[in-house]
Amino acid sequence: MSVFTVTAIIDGDTFEVTPRWKWNGDTGTRVRPTGYDATELHAYGGQAAKNKLSNLILGKEVDLRTAHKIDRGRLVCDVYYQGRNLADYFPEYQ
Q: Is the N or C terminus of the chain more exposed, i.e. has fewer CB atoms within 10 Å?
């Protein structure tokens, strides 16, 4: 797809980007990376997962690559940061 700037972290595996992504006639700002599933925000460890993602990519550029589907308004796609798959930064959630 292209390079986007991360503008907000929702939880450990959902974030928002600018500009809006476009895929298969849909458009939006929320992204759900493939390759890992972080603890839910309300569960034990959820805030730590959100903090880790925030410290890593908030305000930074990410590369949104192969998109797979739209899930609850989020583009589920392969996300790369500094040339590495974002999932590689979260081995504890794979």
A: C
